[in-house]
Amino acid sequence: MNKEKIKSEATTPLRHPSKFLYWLLIPFLGFLLRIILKVKTHKDLAVKNIKGPFLALGTHSSALDFILMMLALIPHRLNIVCGRDLLTWKAVKPFIKYAGLIPMSQFSMDIGSIRLMKKAIDMGCNLSLFPEGKISLDGRQIHFTTQSIAKLVKFLNVPVVMCHNNGGYLSLPKWAPKMRRGRIDQSIKLLFTVQDLQTMKVNDIFNRIKSAFAYNDHIFQKENHIRFKTKAPAKGLHYLLYKCSKCGTEYEMSSNDHELTCNVCKNTIEYTEYGEMLAKVPNVARFQRIDQWYDYQRQTIKELVNDENFYETHSVVWAVSRDGKYEENGDGELFINTSEIGFIGKDLNGNPAEMRVPLKTLYTIVQKVNEAVDLTIDNVVHRFYFRDCRYSVKYTLIVEESHKRIQGVQ
Q1: 256 and 333: one domain?
Q2: In this structure, are 140 and 262 located in the same domain?
Q3: Looking at residue 96, what is its pLDDT?
Q4: How many CB atoms are located within 10 Å of the residue 122 CB?
Q5: What is the pLDDT of residues 324-341, one digit of tens each?
Q6: Does 339 lie in the same domain as 258?
Q7: Using H for helix, E for strand and C for coil, what is the string for the chain?
Q8: Residue 379 sits in which domain range?
Q9: CA 238 to chain centre
Q10: Tens-place pLDDT, residues 207-248
Q11: Which of 8, 25, 106, 270 has its CA 20 to 30 A from that of 405?
Q12: Domain shared by 175 and 68, yes or no
């Protein structure tokens, strides 16, 4: 990010969120969510008595997390730190002016956003931050993160509240076209006092944060035998589980309302409202839960990137975020190897275009269900749509496992 952009970010107007938003709209949405999703919230006394400014951290299992956190912390209003892509969502645009949102580049050092956060704290604002940076793909906490969140927490030097939920992922899975009715258990507790932050080392702060973020919605569902009601429990699951668990073929999976089927070996698995994976006789159900199947895919990618000569590339359409919408900017190839991910192609005028991002500093990427991935470079979101309408989850796993390999992390 150049100095002009940093200065521009640091001087962006800040405001407290609109009272109308909090006293009318948010409570109304909360009333609907409690009825539809059976949201139960437990809030510790220390949080009930807290005074701002403070920082609220939250697990990010679904798009509902923002509203759930806002509801749980009323009467406090929250300035939400969000990815720049969120500002392009049609449902969000009408409220941008009133919500006091603070945009941040995902998975990159965004000095301008950090300065805005500090400025907001100095104004007496309460911040909301989801440090995982994206919605969970597999119903668990993000596989890897850095100590940057601990350093940020220590830098802001205000009380830290933890908002943790189970069931959010299963209520609105990233891969599913519709919401499901089940149960969400949310706990709100004080994670750090100012005195804690002033006396604790960064590594100790980091370890406490990691521990607080642990969850697995699939185990939560199984242990509590919760039904997440929907007419199509398996619809869209092939987006996430792209590799056949029987024959190993990739991107030949298809899903209907109740079943996930390999188009090559015809192995068919029923996915139920209780999160069960059942084989359709005479087929084989190798895994009992979604997260176990996803781990199988991760393991094969881990083995793949151990080859230093690994290289994969696919044809994409290149789009760029401008004025709150994505506009086509060219086309070419999105490549990835064990050290970098990048694009080589042409813009709409036929001029050569190339960009590269080292995986040493990129521990994951944002993927879209319409089979696209985002790369944020110098605060500009570049979106690459795969022409074959596949590969985004695989690219995500390659980025994650390559980064861990470079960092020497198991």
Answers
A1: no
A2: no
A3: 67
A4: 11
A5: 688 999 999 999 999 999
A6: no
A7: CCHHHHHHHHCCCCCCCCHHHHHHHHHHHHHHHHHHHCEEEEECHHHHCCCCCCEEEECCCCCCHHHHHHHHCCCCCEEEEEEHHHHHCCCCHHHHHHHCCEEECCCCCCHHHHHHHHHHHHCCCEEEECCCCCCCCCCECCCCCCCHHHHHHHHHCCCEEEEEEECHHHHCCCCCCCCCECCEEEEEEEEECHHHHHHCCHHHHHHHHHHHCCCEHHHHHHHHCCCCECCCCCCCHHHCCCECCCCCCECCEEECCCEEEECCCCCEEEECCCCCEEECCCCCCCCCCHHHHHHHHHHHHHHHCCCCCCEEEEEEEEEEEECCEEEEEEEEEEEEECCEEEEEEEECCCCEEEEEEECCCCCCCEEECCCEEEEEECCEEEEEEECCCCCHHHHHHHHHHHHHHHHCCC
A8: 311-407
A9: 19
A10: 999 999 999 999 999 999 999 999 999 999 999 999 999 999
A11: 106
A12: yes
The distance from CA 48 to its chain's CA centroid, rounded to whole angstroms, is 28
CATH of the domain at 371: 2.30.29.30
The arrangement of strands across the sheet holding 55-58 comes to: 39-43, 184-192, 160-166, 55-58, 126-129, 78-83, 102-104
Per the domain annotation, does 230 fall within a domain? Answer: no
Residues 194 and 265 in one domain: no
Q: Are 186 and 42 in contact (CB under 8 A)?
A: yes
CA distances from 384 to 95, 159, 237, 317, 321 (A): 27, 39, 22, 6, 11
pLDDT in tens, 67-85: 899 889 988 999 989 877 7
Q: How far apart are CA 252 and CA 388, in angstroms?
A: 12
Tokens at residue 171, please? 């209520």
- The token pair at 401 is 């496992």
**Gap between the Cα atoms of 153 and 81, Å rounded:** 14
Choose among 370, 159, 396: nearest CA to 297.
396
Distance CA 160, CA 128 (A): 10
Query: Which pLDDT score, from 0 to 100, does residue 16 have?
Result: 82
**Amino acid identity at 22:** Y
**CA-CA distance, 208 to 195, in Å (whole number)?**
15
